[in-house]
Write a structure and sequence with these properties.
Organism: Cryptosporangium phraense
GO biological process, one term: lactate catabolic process
Radius of gyration: 21 Å
Structural class: alpha+beta
CATH class of the largest domain: Alpha Beta
Number of helices: 13
CATH superfamily of the largest domain: FAD-linked oxidase, cap domain/gating helix
InterPro entries: FAD-bd_PCMH, FAD-bd_PCMH-like_sf, FAD-bd_PCMH_sub2, Oxid_FAD_bind_N
CATH topology of the largest domain: Vanillyl-alcohol Oxidase, Chain A, domain 3
Strand content: 15-25%
Number of domains: 2
Distance between the termini: 26 Å
Pfam families: FAD_binding_4
Bound molecules: flavin-adenine dinucleotide
Strand order of the largest sheet: 14-11-13-12-16-17-15-18
GO molecular function, one term: FAD binding
Length: 406
């Protein structure tokens, strides 16, 4: 998705020497022991949907394909234990059949739980549950790259250096994640004539008696390429909400009161998945795919200025700048999309965005940027030779913060 990364890391520039697919968690420990003994780099890989180049094997070596570790168990406590390669789609299906809702999943729902924990952050469920570092993970079984050939169970605060650190501190082979009792989720499409009307409702959605699972909004520029199951007015602002069924009448009332129109209410659970598949990075990705003639870039940003002063946000880059919004617990997040000129021009907008109070996460670099100091300190013992996913840890990124979910 990043024209900057397309220039720096074009497909085929960095390749692994071998792809290895372990069948058991013990296989992973054994592979790492051999790799350690022979100084062979190992880059873990789930479904390969990560979009910052995090899974690029910069030093060749082994690409560790974890998709065969796909066991899923619903525990008596209601948590779910899954192999690193289990897909969120499968985990959710198994969980719902047992009366449970997974706390969080990304818009790339076919991705793996190991890849989501190691490379992802937010998604459907974030309004209530925040990010993958906010209690989503109960425990993880991790294989270190220290020659021990062991597997270790990590819980509580000790999990922090293993979440969103791209596998540089160890390979996650299994994870236990939190769920809620299953709810009856409904997909609601609404539309509004203007941006202020759209966000006036967007910001009130956390007042519903049950928090929505997702609330995405788009400017008209992003609407025609959405993969909606209903016809959307290409001139209108789109609001799409995964709402608990009992809250839908109140939501419809909010929309009507706010000068909008409810376009459709879909009660089939698969329709809520369709809404998830049009959230976070996806609307930008759809736009890029539909306009190969225009090179577009995006930035991941967050802050109430998105609701209060969108023109100030748009003014941070020249030309046409469009916003796709998501709802967090206390503020909105957004994907800003604009025409690409150069890597330097993209970078120069970061200070302008921070100056108006936005949190900014750049999707144009591959360094670990969540808790990098902790990752460096942990990797000193779990990967003393620096063989795990080389090139992703740098002390100089320690100052960069992630998009805030506050
Ligand atoms: C269009 C689009 C939409 C997206 N939407 C979202 C979204 O809503 N929310 C979100 O958080 N992300 C999103 N992403 C990013 C990405 O798709 C998700 O984070 C996804 O969950 C990554 O899982 P994966 O299995 O594809 O991992 P991969 O891409 O294979 O790997 C991701 C990272 O984790 C490492 N890794 C993989 N497996 C393991 C393991 N078992 N142990 C240790 N390290 C491992 C890899 O080396 C890599 O650094 C999006 C990306 C795109 C392109």
């Amino acid at each position: 998705m990043s024209p900057v990364l397309m220039e720096k890391v074009p497909p085929g520039k960095y390749v692994a020497d071998a792809a290895v697919r372990p069948r058991t968690t013990e296989d992973v420990a054994a592979i790492l022991a051999i790799a350690y003994a022979h100084d062979v780099p190992v880059t873990p890989r789930g479904a390969g949907t990560g979009n910052y180049g995090q899974a690029t094997p910069f030093d060749g070596g082994i690409l560790l394909d974890l998709r065969a570790l796909d066991d899923i168990t619903v525990n008596d406590t209601g948590t779910i234990t899954a192999g690193a390669g289990a897909r969120l789609t499968s985990i959710d299906t198994v969980g719902r059949a047992a009366g449970r809702d997974v706390w969080l999943f990304p818009s790339t729902k076919h991705s793996t739980i190991g890849g989501f924990l190691a490379g992802g952050s937010v998604g459907t469920g974030t309004i209530e549950h925040g990010t993958t570092t906010d209690g989503f993970v109960v425990a993880a079984t991790v294989a270190p790259m220290d020659g021990s050939g062991e597997l270790r169970t990590v819980t509580g605060d000790a999990l922090t250096p293993y979440v969103h650190t791209y596998g540089v501190t160890g390979i996650v082979v299994e994870a236990e994640i939190r769920t809620d009792p299953r709810r009856d989720w409904t997909a609601v499409y609404a539309e509004f004539p203007t941006y202020p009307q759209t966000v006036a409702v967007h910001r009130r959605l956390t007042g519903l008696p049950v928090l929505p699972r997702l609330a995405s909004a788009d400017e008209p520029a992003l609407v025609p390429t959405l993969t909606a199951s209903v016809a959307l007015d290409p001139a209108a602002f789109s609001l799409r909400v995964i709402a608990e069924a009992g809250t839908v009448p109140e939501l419809e009332h909010l929309v009507r009161d706010g000068g909008g129109r409810t376009v459709a209410v879909r009660t089939d659970y698969a329709e809520t998945d369709r809404l998830s598949g049009m959230s976070y990075n996806h609307p930008v990705w759809f736009l890029q795919r539909a306009h190969p003639d225009r090179t577009l870039f995006h930035m991941e940003i967050g802050g109430t200025v998105l609701w209060d002063d969108p023109d100030a946000v748009r003014a941070t880059y020249p030309g046409d700048v469009h916003l796709h919004l998501e709802l967090f617990r206390h503020s909105p997040g957004a994907m800003l999309v604009a025409s690409y000129e150069s890597a330097a021009a993209v970078e120069s907008g970061i200070a302008r965005m921070e100056a108006i109070g936005l949190d900014v996460h750049s999707p144009h670099q591959w360094y670990v940027d969540r808790n990098p100091e902790l990752a460096i300190a942990t990797a000193a013992t779990t990967d003393p030779k620096g063989l795990l996913n080389p090139g992703k840890l740098s002390a100089s990124t320690a100052a960069r913060v992630n998009i805030g979910v506050r």
